[in-house]
Design goal:
single chain, 414 residues, mainly alpha, Growth Hormone, Chain: A, 15 helices, globular
Amino acid sequence: MRVPYVAPVAIGRCSAALSQQIINVAVGWQLYERTGSALSLGLVGLFELAPVVALTLVAGNAADRYSRRNIAIFAQGLLAFAALGLALVAYLDGPVWMIYGLLLAVGTARAFSSASIATVLPQLIDRAHFARASAWMSSAYQFASVVGPALGGLIIAATGGATTAYAAATVGQVVFVACFLRLPALRPEAAPGKRSVADLFAGFTFIRRTPVFLAAITLDMFAVLLGGAVALLPVYAKDILHVGPEGLGWLRAAPAVGSLMMALVQTRIKPWAKPGQALMVAVIGFGLATIGFGIATNFALSAFCLFLTGAFDSVSVVVRLTLEQSLTPDRLRGRVSAINYVFIGFSNEFGTFESGLTAGLFGTVPAVVGGGIGTILVVLAVAATWPQLLRLPPLHTLQPEESAVPEAEIRHAV
């Protein structure tokens, strides 16, 4: 049965993600061409992440007070102007500092989009469809993750510069805006009582008081933090597997292909009967696949292990997103989503740093294998700390806790 509004949201998110992937490729290529410095590439993540961290509370509270559709349109519209600005800088050969200034605008857009885009659909569909809708959203994102980098690279190779790539990214954001204009502009449920300073931190309080959700994001965060094999793929491609840049491209695509295929499978199967157990098994599988990749010396086996990391990660993402949508009251979804995005974004950036540091100290293979082992140990620690996650019933049976946040207890999760 077709669920209304899923298609325009999925198409819009796919188009926006394609645009972001193209920007990432074009910025990296342009900066390295201009500066020849690896440090200039590392600063990209810093300039994009800093506004996200700084604006988390503002963006989350805005998404819980105003139309999330309108905030999402504003955010991606800002990103479209940033992409257009990058195109002009590339065309006019403007100074490098302008690129970093526009990356701050990109980060600002991401702060507001993270709090709003993921929380639009739960307002529009029945909770029984949350799991399947999350799978479709994950599929759209993973498709963009597979196609976006390749498309960006092809455009740069065909045109000899980044200008056209940025222009294509601008068009991608315009498509997003067109898709979201088809959605109704609903306001979130009003919070009971008068607003106070404590409302700014209500998202943190809700997560702390919701053990199963805290357990889920802890698993996801540490899996990304410790299992960051992707950051070391250039080393594997050049020094271990000896497959060169073409092989590196296939290795980078393998996790996204696994995620896309598993996400599509999850759109067709019934919701997990025991999602907490499925989540833990998936993260253990992610750790084992990371270990397998770490010790593999055959290209095909390495690519298959990376494919498995993506497939297992897709299960984790769908369960976590559905859990967030099911347990969070609508009046808190913006703040909770913004905080969740910061946690995952921080773990991505810091995970890259952690992988490089441990590889420098102990060697590449020990760093990857140790990360996989650490991921499995985190699963065991989470199971011991939050045993109620193992008893989690089907996600579509959960109801959000509507009582005051300090007293929040998710009865269905125990």
